[in-house]
# Entry
Amino acid sequence: MTRIACSIPLDAPRRHVGHLAVPFSDDAHAYGVIPVPIAVLGGGDGPTVLLAAGVHGDEYEGQIVLRRLLHTLDPTRLAGRLIVLPALNLPAVRAARRTSPIDGANMNRAFPGDPDSGPTTQLAHYVETLLLPRCQAALDLHFGGTASEYLPCSYVYAGGPIAAAKAAMADAFAAPISIVVGATAETRSLSAACERQGVPMIATELGGGFVSHASMAVADAGTSAALRHLGLLPAPMDAFEILGAMIPEVLALKLLADLDYSLIPNAQALEPAQRQAKLVAIWTTQEMIICNAAKLAEQEIPLPTSLAKLADPRLRGRVMIPDITSGGGLEAVGAFALTAGGSETNIDPGLQLIHRIPDLRLWKADGEAVTAFKSGDIWVAEAHAGWAVRTEYAGVKVVSVPVKIGAHIGLIKEGWMGIGRASR
Ligand SMILES: [Zn+2]
# Structure
């Protein structure tokens, strides 16, 4: 039976911040308690997850990340409940030490704990017998502290009935390195306590030596990603519109869920290649060379049929193409590369061709090319067919010329849609 009292309700909705009162009496404090901070964020139905930091007092990044999470996370956004222990071995935290100066104990060697022993051991007993049985997952944020420096990693114990759940959490946390360690003989860690209680958990070792912003960023992003994976937090966006050029990155980031095509009745009208496991085609457009034909005729310049013709010195200052950060930017760079004898993996010739266009102007935002045509500054632009139509609406007569790349005519830009993992 624990002697520790918790000052907040663990099952209540919304945000509650309080402490675990660990009884401790010394020469100065006859009836003293150690107030170990604890917080609960209760949202809608869903799993309960334990988040711990400060198991070792001199590992600060996780303490900072969890305190920030407590202040910024709106519990009404949660599908589930968080029990947060941001400074679990408080005496060690206050002393900036790995172990507690009160009883000399290493919290991560104190499990399963003892309700009748020193403060660190009492706390371990409370966590193992009263908190973990409420939880469906746990995350313990460690860093190197003053003693060590780690390559940033998350790790899980191998084997057991919850091995797959642990591996999936580590995958979602997405630390630069994920390590599966063999079943350990160490039975006194929080990891071992979670194994005993059947709670899938991952621990991290992220950097060390001093408070590192890079380590903190990994902990911050990883904690949110793990909570999304566990279903507590919604996906940052439900649906993603993705340009074709971005597909490899988006798939590598594992942002997307498998699509349920039974919910997309008209998907059968698409080509098989447009119906992928995680992405469905939603639009296709043709990138064009759009020309103010009257201005070109005045200067006796023929309509450019290839991107290479944009380097014509008579077009100095009159050419506009998409900036690399704009919607059509990557496709345009690819097209310039192919035009100049390069490829999608060798874009240097394309960049050289772009540099040969005298006084080139770049459009970034929607409508910039239309405005530039209307002002008369720009006579030729690489943009998609829709901008040609809108330029006409704006009162400028333009001619659209399909882009010629080698023996091929046409430059297609594709739009795709995916549904975010943990989307509701
Ligand atoms: Zn540690």
